[in-house]
């Protein structure tokens, strides 16, 4: 079992930055692929970014490429999502997730709200 707790959400103006953190506890953090998803009001949850076990490989949805950066610190059992040049369309609840492989996520955090004002 893995417990995931997100933090760092808030309200920011368009063009601003935020860094989300996700602290994991339970099973060995470095054995998991970590990801971030988001869900805007009235929309389905969508993939944002993922990072493989060692952090050497990362993946992003097209709409955040060049603006968001996912990273992980296996010594701290934490994954981060650095968000820059934020847009109102980035407004959503952001969820941290963990899984054995990319695309197969078994554990989810409770989510953190990000609101970007225009």
Spell out the blueprint of helices and strands.
Blueprint: E1 2-7, E2 10-13, E3 18-26, E4 33-39, E5 46-51, E6 58-60, E7 68-73, E8 78-83, E9 92-101, E10 104-108, E11 112-117
Parallel strand pairs: 2-11
Antiparallel strand pairs: 1-3, 3-8, 4-5, 4-9, 5-6, 7-8, 9-10, 9-11
Task: Report on the architecture of this protein.
The chain has 118 residues and is mainly β. It is built from no helices and eleven strands. Strands 2, 4, 5, 6, 9, 10 and 11 form a seven-stranded mixed beta sheet that branches.
Largest sheet: 7 strands, mixed
Spans of at least 5 consecutive residues whose pLDDT stays below 50 are: none
Share in β-strands: over 45%
Mean pLDDT: 96
Shape field: globular
Q: Total number of β-strand segments?
A: 11
**Span from first to last CA?**
40 Å
User: In sequence order, what are the helices and strands, one letter per element?
Assistant: EEEEEEEEEEE
Structural class, by secondary structure, is: mainly beta
Q: What's the alpha carbon Rg, rounded to whole Å?
A: 13 Å
Count every helix, treating DSSP H or I runs of 4 or more residues as helices: 0
Helix proportion range? under 10%
């Amino acid at each position: 079992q893995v417990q995931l707790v997100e933090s760092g959400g808030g309200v920011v103006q368009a063009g601003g930055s935020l860094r989300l953190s996700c602290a994991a506890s339970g099973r060995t953090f470095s054995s998991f692929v970590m990801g971030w998803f988001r869900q805007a009001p009235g929309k389905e949850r969508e993939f944002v970014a993922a990072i493989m076990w060692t952090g050497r490989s990362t993946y992003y949805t097209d709409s955040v490429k060049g603006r968001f950066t996912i990273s992980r610190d296996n010594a701290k059992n934490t994954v981060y999502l650095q968000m820059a040049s934020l847009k109102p369309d980035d407004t959503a609840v952001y969820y941290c997730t963990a899984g054995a492989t990319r695309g197969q996520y078994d554990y989810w955090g409770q989510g953190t709200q990000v609101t970007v004002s225009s």
